Automatic annotation (TrEMBL), chains A, B, C, D:
TM spans (from-to): 33-54, 61-82, 94-124, 156-177, 219-240
Key word Membrane present: yes
Entry keyword set: Ion channel, Ion transport, Membrane, Potassium, Potassium channel, Potassium transport, Transmembrane, Transmembrane helix, Transport
Keyword Lipid metabolism tagged: no
Protein name: Ion transporter
Occurrences of domain Ion transport (ranges): 29-236
């Protein structure tokens, strides 16, 4: 982000950019903390506002806080757009869309009154927490997890395909064995029961009534109980791999070809060859100096 | 699969074989996607057809879709048989049996009317998803998981034997402590409760009523909660091992026979022999040049 | 087990010993399979006999099977004792005690009639499955798991101490917040609820009623949901270590000190030194022969 | 802890210090065991005292035991303070605060009668179990687990942030779909349901009633069922790393400073320098002998 720091408007834009998009100056940090507070307050108001007793008692207060925060978030978005050189690109990005979603529902109520269903859209504001996490430098941890997730994605997809097949077959089996009175009124309903049982949630709203149904349920529960080892095992292995590879540089030693050096390594662990090909080995300098001084 | 591409009928067979059994040409890919769509539609129709309201309203539509898909799957199977040189061998294979199971129940209804119970057999169609997974090149991931499962099979069998013993003993104990009013009417019923509790499903349909029963339940729940670490640990270890071994090439060193080289390795880790037999060792070139330049 | 195979009684004893305690001859294998069948039949009879309808209908059949099997197991135990040189040592061992427990309850009924409560003791017969597992050569797998369990025992004990403290504190907290009407009638009852919640069993027989109680429950459930990672992680790490160490011999190379050689290794992986100190390196022999032949 | 062992009062203080704060003499061990017994008895009395039937029947006994133990714990704390040189520093430490909390509530009842709510504060006594664990030398295991927890802390925090977002969004979604009759009376109540479902607890007190609600619940349950692999994988990886690093000695090579040597290593893996500074390098001896023999 090479910004020309010209005086006047340009200087203001650059300064605002530093405060809003970065977090290395005291002003930027104060802004971040204020933003975190505003987001959490906003989420809390929505949550409490959905409880009838609180809505009746503190309704007007919630209303004013909501509008105050919406105006604040709108101003923030305007400033963000103002200090970026390509504001449209930002509005199309993930963070830009989340920023828009955070304020649009409240403004829409002015035009379309009584839009109660939009409460859920407003709660998409929690996604702004991602920005906070980025500010708190959780990026390294997140990328490690995403890296491991990406590597195990295909195995996890395979796992869910297998789950889908098992659930469908057990659901069809239970649908023919159990009566609709026990809750197995259709195959999709049986699938709901099968997932409730296999994931070990076990609400107990639908429960097998016959002896045969109970026997099959036991098999399904043991399957669900032990099959969890599959994604856990795959993911564990990938996290271990990601952590290990993160510690090593990917370049091989020009001397012996050993390719698992610590990222900070200057000499090859195995043969002592100088690894940084762009600069000269300080040992050689010493030798040259020794030679010339002789 | 060396097929002689002769003109006429033979050429047609070879072409059909490519389209149906492989997935590397545009025609073959289009066929695969159509097949995936047909299988998922067929499963959806069976699922929705089991819901009474939908069955009443859209019954005839479901009936026609079911027959259209059954005729399509039958034609597909006939073409498969036609373009294979040993069709009986295919019909005896896993995929052949699944293909037959996918169409037979619907045809059987013509002969044995009102065979409602066959609905479950029809749902075995979901197993055809395995074929889709194969087409989507999930083979590598599946073989990795199967490899790890095979390695941990004996430990997992041992784990289930231990679970069976624990469940039987706790069930017998609870059967003597708790009264039939609480649901513990027999030892098999107690075993059902023990599995529901140990796998952390916890329906709540059978629940201990006495203080002693509750104390024993606490031990069983803590056991089930922590014992899951056993299959998870074993499977994790085996996945890690399988992934690690996947990193090594399977070719042995021509010098010393060492067969666990990194796939990128050019020289043997143990004896330094040049591993790539198709090209010349650059070291030799250097030596030759050195020799000729002298 | 060096047994002198003398003719007559001694020869019979040795033969019986081979059949009963080992599993490498056809006769021994037939005996093993018969024993497995008898144990499973015996357990099945006890399980089915506890179901009232079956007990009424097939009561006498169960009675005769039970007695037939008890007499068979008694004969088996007598033969075991007969062909061992130190029978008392066997009766005091784990397997001996299980063998006694398997037959004593049925015999005791002759002396103490109507001993219904002994049904649980009879089910200790399932522990005889351990013997079957040993016969099926599951020993290696079991010792691997036990090895990993032993290594992680102290961490697991620590884990359960932490669980106990968390459960006690949350139980006391919920006891003061929730009313007895919701089921929190005493601290031990609250502890039962806390374990049901923390182990993710969730029967639903005791459930928080107040808003504050629900908030605390959320924390407890998230704690239980994520804390399972602790024993799983510890056990995974120990299994990986056990598998790895099982593959390597523990002796170091006399040449370079490298101490992670494959158990089958004859030469050091790193420096090529002959590892078996009890015999001579075949390469040296070759050299000596070469030298002498020159 | 350099204590001058002078005769008289000072000698008594030193002796008491050894008995109370250490555990390597017979007297100290006897004290530890007595302390463990007293703590467990004290916890048991509080637990049983909360059960109405027991409280009525054995109330006075519990009262006397409670007071006896409180006086004992008070004396113990006084002795602890007496034999320490900086008692205030101890009272401000974690163990000091727990010791105070263990006795203060009972004494407070004398001043503020009928302080029933203080029962929970008294149960903080279970935290004294930490001291027992320390005495039983569980420190190594605890530090290993804490080390792994510290390393995975940021990833676990990230995991809980993601859980919070998923729970909030699913709760808002279900609040708009499901009716208040099914229990989804507010968004916080929906969040309680979402956590109950996602952690696979599944009480069954709030359950989806509509088909769409059930479909969303299935997704949430599968998410919760498989997402547990994330903290487990991260923690497993960190435990493996902690164990591995425990295998290395912490001393650096005097030659090159490399500090990850196997605890059994005698020569530096990197530069071959002799690591044991207390004895002489056997290679040097050989050289000297070679030199002298020439």
């Amino acid at each position: 982000m090479n910004l020309n720091l010209t005086p006047g408007a340009e200087g203001l834009r650059a300064q605002l950019f530093h405060i809003i998009f970065e977090s290395d100056t005291p002003g930027a940090k104060a802004f971040d903390i204020a933003l975190i507070g505003a987001i959490l307050l906003s989420v809390a108001v929505i949550l409490l506002g959905s409880i009838e007793i609180y809505a009746e008692r503190y309704g007007p207060i919630f209303f004013y806080i909501e509008w105050a925060l919406t105006i604040l978030f709108s101003l923030e978005l305007l400033v963000r757009i103002y200090c970026l050189e390509r504001p449209l690109l930002y509005l199309k990005s993930f963070y830009g869309i989340v920023d828009l979603i955070a304020i649009l529902p409240t403004w829409l109520v002015l035009l379309v009154p009584g839009a109660h269903g939009l409460v859920i859209v407003r709660l998409l504001r929690v996604l702004r927490i991602f920005r906070i996490l980025r500010l708190m430098e959780f990026v390294g941890e997140a990328s490690l997890l995403l890296d491991a997730l990406k590597r195990s994605l295909r195995q996890i997809l395979l796992f869910f395909s297998a789950i889908f097949m098992v659930v469908t077959l057990f659901a069809a089996l239970m649908y023919t064995i159990e009566s609709p009175e026990a809750g197995f009124t259709s195959i999709p309903m049986s699938m709901y029961w099968a997932i409730v049982s296999m994931t070990t949630v076990g609400y107990g709203d639908i429960v097998p009534a016959t002896a045969l149904g109970k026997a099959i349920t036991m098999i399904l529960m043991l399957l669900g109980y032990s099959i969890i080892a599959v994604p856990t095992g795959v993911f564990s292995a990938q996290v271990i791999r990601s952590i290990r590879e993160d510690r090593y540089s990917e370049e091989a030693c020009p001397g012996c070809g050993h390719d698992r050096h610590d990222k900070k390594a200057r000499y090859c662990l195995r043969c002592g060859t100088w690894l940084d090909e762009d600069s000269e080995d300080p040992r050689k300098k010493d030798e040259n100096q020794d030679a010339s001084s002789d």
